[in-house]
Specification:
Length: 199
């Protein structure tokens, strides 16, 4: 607020005040300006030694704040450098066993290595076995995963008609073998008897 100069009447000027004149308002001073004036008055009242001590305290406070800022900055830089070093060591770390050869005394014995694992075995190749005749499977002579060789009986098939034909064929073979035996006997008997020539 600008300072407006006013004239305040003195004790002798009351008689000279013209009619219709208004009473003057006392000057309202700026609070900020009053404080500055008080500070200037205070500064004038402070001795040189006190002013020097205050200036020294302010400089010490500034120096302390500057040191704190520098310490924080150095701490942050140091922490970043430490993290980088640790990360580099972890990435480049080698197992202890890989650093050099390991030696041990040799002993005679059997070397065994066992590995336990769960899994499913699958054959390299597979074959479908199917019988050449119809019928009902009577028995299975092998189990899944069992090794077999050529000529092994894998299963038995029951077929009544085929069984009858096999039985008849076996009877025919037996009859033929009996006839063969009789023929051999007759031939042997014929060779044993002398033959006479009748003219």
């Amino acid at each position: 607020m600008p300072n407006v100069p006013t004239i305040t009447p003195g004790p002798d000027d009351t008689e000279h005040t013209p009619e219709g004149a208004t009473e003057t308002i006392p000057l309202i001073t700026n609070v900020h300006a009053d404080k500055q004036n008080e500070r200037a008055n205070d500064a004038a009242e402070i001795s040189d030694e006190e002013a020097y001590a205050k200036l020294k305290a302010k400089r010490a406070e500034r120096r302390r704040k500057k040191l704190i800022r520098r310490g924080i900055a150095a701490g942050v830089v140091g922490a970043i450098a430490l993290i980088a070093i640790v990360a580099t060591l972890v990435i480049n770390a080698q197992p202890q066993g890989a650093s050099g050869p390991v030696t041990d005394m040799v002993t005679e014995g059997t070397f065994t290595t066992s590995v336990e694992a769960k899994g499913q075995l699958k054959p390299i190749s597979s074959s479908v076995v199917s019988p050449s005749v119809d019928g009902t499977v009577d028995s299975i002579n092998v189990q899944a995963g069992q090794s077999v060789s050529e000529g092994d009986v894998l299963m038995t098939i029951k077929n009544d008609e085929l069984d009858r034909n096999v039985a008849e064929a076996q009877r025919a073979v037996a009859a033929a073998q009996e006839d063969l035996a009789n023929a051999k006997k007759a031939a042997a008997a014929a060779q044993a008897t002398p033959t006479t020539d009748v003219d």
